[in-house]
Amino acid sequence: MQMSLELPNSAILVLGRLADEGPMTPKALIEKVGLAPRTISFALRTLVREKVIRKTPNLADMRQPIYHIDMERVRELQIRFDSGQISQMPPSFRPSGHSFTR
Fold first, then answer.
1. Is there a contact between 25 and 33 (Cβ–Cβ < 8 Å)?
2. CA-to-CA distance for 70 and 73, rounded, in angstroms?
3. pLDDT tops 50 at residue 101
4. Residue 53: half-sphere exposure toward Cβ, Cα within 13 Å
5. CA-to-CA distance for 93 and 102, rounded, in angstroms?
6. Residue 22: which CATH number?
7. How far apart, in whole angstroms, are the C-alpha atoms of residue 82 and residue 72?
8. Which residues pair with residue 66 across a beta bridge?
9. Which residues have a Cβ under 8 Å from the Cβ of 9 and sit 6 or more positions away?
10. Is 46 inside any structural domain?
11. What integer is the mean pLDDT of 23-41?
12. In this predicted model, what pLDDT tens digit does every residue of 45-96 receive, in sequence order?
């Protein structure tokens, strides 16, 4: 039985970027996604709370943890989102792809 989870747009954008480019620090996500630092922090907290991503220490810079997608959890949850809502967002805020499984 698969559960579903609805995420805010910011979390979907962050999840999409992590799916496309792999593990990243919050600073890298801010630069690549183009959202405000507080918005990225909110998205990361939401995704960690739902156990969709996990946070690991960054041995190169302990101030910037690294976030990784938990692909098993993503498949288990069958992440759903409203693509119509995303298409209304400014182009710079849209993820390049919505595929969260590899």
1. no
2. 5
3. no
4. 29
5. 23
6. 1.10.10.10
7. 22
8. 56
9. 81, 85, 86, 89, 93
10. yes
11. 96
12. 999 999 999 999 999 999 999 999 988 887 777 655 444 444 444 444 444 4
Structural domain for 47, as ranges? 9-88
- This prediction has a pTM of 0.72
Given a cut of 50, is residue 31 above it in pLDDT?
yes
Of residues 55, 66, 47, the one with CA closest to residue 8: 47
How many whole angstroms separate alpha carbon 85 and alpha carbon 76?
24
Residue 29 near residue 21, CB atoms below 8 Å: no
Task: Tell me the angle at which helices 37-49 and 26-33 cross, rounded to the nearest 10 degrees.
Answer: 120
Count how many domains the chain has: 1
DSSP symbol at 95: -
**Main-chain phi, psi angles of 60, to 5 degrees:** -80, -30
Burial class of residue 70 (count of CB atoms within 10 Å of its CB; 0-12, 13-18, 19+):
middle
**Residue 98 structure tokens:** 């919505």
